[in-house]
Amino acid sequence: MKIINIGIDIGGRHIGMALIDEKGKIHKKEIVNYSKDKSLSYIVDTISSYVQEHEKEASSVGIGVPGIVKNNKIVYTCNLSLEDPNFVHKIRTKLPVYLGNDALCATLAEYKLVDKCKYKNYALITVGTGIGAGLIFDGKPYEGKHGYSGELGHTVLKKGGLQCNCGRRGCFERYASVSRLLEVTKKKSLGELFEDIEKNGNLAQIFDNYLDDLADGIANFIMTYDPDMTVIGGSIAWFGDKFYYILREKIASKLFNRGAKDVMLKFAKLGNDAGLIGASFLANS
User: Does some domain include residue 111?
Assistant: First the structure.
């Protein structure tokens, strides 16, 4: 019998939930969009309802959280109020419940399913509503002593810069997230942006400036961790073929003695499903 786990991905705009088998195949997927309620109780109730409906089919529950997680507890979240040391115990189920940072969950999915664990040290940077990162060191997920590992979006790119929800100023995600890109281009979606960019020189310049900021943050990350492979995920990855070589060249220009071809960089393949797939792997990671 195949091992089935429940994967949950708590996002800034919706909650994704599914049964995931041992090969990463998705079954009975549900997406619940937030209306106006993003409260802890609403999120717990939404997850509990799905889990109770399917717990007889599963062995465990894995939940990806957009924030700092350590020792199966939520330490801090920036955009959702989930800091409750008893969060795991509030999920109404008899199954074991495991928590992980959402970017780390996406990293696990890409690492195991797409790259088949072939790299010893591996990283995935998610670029979407915010920016995060997941790290695999020596073939194992790395949280850091206090769970801060991967909080790339809240490293300062420009001192005294734009105010961030985390309380700091000049954070990387305030300049290089998809949210910021849509804000400065005044576009409703990335699809609309890339549809217009080739016929609008001003828009193309704004995007090039955005890529400079994105490249700065990624280069800082590579200089710090020097992984065997760096993967870019999140919604920006859907359009990666339009700017891959430009971004790689910009990153290489900021690294010591590295040509563009020496930068081990690619875009993620699993899209929005990576987080909930990876969350289902938490029990065995």
Answer: no
Evaluate whether residue 20 is within a structural domain: yes
Task: Indicate which CATH number applies to the domain containing 44.
Answer: 3.30.420.40
Q: Could you tell me if 126 and 132 are in contact, meaning their C-beta atoms sit under 8 angstroms apart? A: yes
The string of pLDDT tens digits covering residues 28-69 is: 999 999 888 888 999 999 999 999 999 999 999 999 998 899
- Determine the 3-state secondary structure of 266 from DSSP: strand
Q: How far is CA 19 from CA 1, 8, 188, 279, in A?
A: 14, 9, 32, 11
Tell me the backbone φ, ψ of residue 248, rounded to 5 degrees. Answer: -60, -40
Q: Are residues 135 and 264 in the same domain?
A: yes
Q: Name the E strands within 80-148.
A: 97-101, 122-127, 131-137, 140-141
Query: pLDDT tens digits for 209-264?
Result: 999 999 999 999 999 999 999 999 999 999 999 999 999 999 999 998 778 888 99
Q: Are residues 50 and 69 in the same domain?
A: yes
